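Tip: read the tokens left to right.
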């Protein structure tokens, strides 16, 4: 549940992973943007058939990831999300890895209802030293008249560690107090890796009445345990064929997972 956005208990936000965008090393120029759109529309259809509550577009294919978005990738992501919108029957959000200002820009341009990113903290990461621009992102949201855009704050970044000695509980409380987080997300070490139960519980203590979501590694075997603490989850890898992040969405896996979640509500 996210007040003012999702009233469904134990909300499931499914990832619609975009393939490598123009300008990234793995971009397939032969298939082009049309191929990227075909792929994401196929995944959207499978996710919606399985009954997910919402969909979030992410440029997961743009490895190695950037800490500052490029004009061509922002333009491509905006174009793909806009082209996919007519197929959507559920609310949608966006996440440009790993640029909070770029994420808000894409969200505003496409009419997304929510956006996820690492907005706060300092990290040593695979992408180098990482200093997210939370203030810039929230000022852009205000300047674009999108105060309704809910922001999901990932407070322990994937592919990174932090020199911050504060506990997860303290960081969750601070992100809400000083940085206006609408939702706190807690991650494992990399995409598809389960969140530590102790981290989730600590974030829950620090967040108070603010929703807390498990951000990575949720699957049909651990969802009951996770949902005892979390208000919802973001899920991508488990919905793919054979649980492989880079495969297409498997509608049967989605349906089985959502049946389990409905039983928990």
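Filled-in amino acids:
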């Amino acid at each position: 549940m996210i007040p003012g956005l999702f009233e469904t208990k134990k909300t499931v936000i499914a990832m619609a992973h975009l393939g490598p965008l123009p300008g990234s090393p793995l971009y397939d120029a032969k298939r082009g943007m049309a191929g990227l759109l075909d792929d994401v529309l196929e995944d959207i259809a499978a996710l919606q058939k399985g009954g997910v509550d919402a969909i979030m577009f992410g440029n997961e294919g743009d490895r190695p990831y950037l800490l500052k978005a490029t004009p061509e990738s922002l333009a491509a992501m905006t174009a793909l999300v806009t082209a996919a919108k007519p197929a959507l029957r559920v609310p949608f959000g966006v996440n440009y890895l790993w640029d909070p200002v770029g994420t808000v820009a894409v969200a505003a341009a496409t009419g997304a209802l929510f956006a996820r990113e690492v907005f706060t903290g300092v990290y040593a990461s695979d992408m180098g030293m990482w200093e997210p621009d939370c203030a810039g992102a929230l000022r852009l949201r205000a300047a674009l008249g999108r105060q309704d855009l809910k922001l999901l704050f990932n407070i322990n970044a994937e592919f990174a560690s932090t020199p911050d000695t504060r506990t997860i509980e303290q960081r969750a409380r601070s992100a809400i107090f000083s940085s206006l987080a609408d939702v706190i997300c807690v991650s494992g070490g990399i995409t598809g890796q389960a969140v530590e139960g102790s981290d989730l519980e600590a974030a829950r203590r620090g967040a108070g009445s603010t929703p807390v979501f498990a951000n990575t590694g949720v699957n049909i075997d651990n969802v009951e345990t996770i949902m005892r603490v979390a208000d919802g989850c973001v899920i991508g890898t488990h919905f793919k064929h054979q649980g492989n992040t880079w495969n297409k969405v498997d509608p049967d896996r989605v349906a089985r997972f959502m049946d389990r979640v409905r039983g928990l509500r």
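The chain has a mean pLDDT of 97. The helical segments are 32-50, 71-84, 100-110, 134-143, 168-179, 197-207, 223-227, 251-264.
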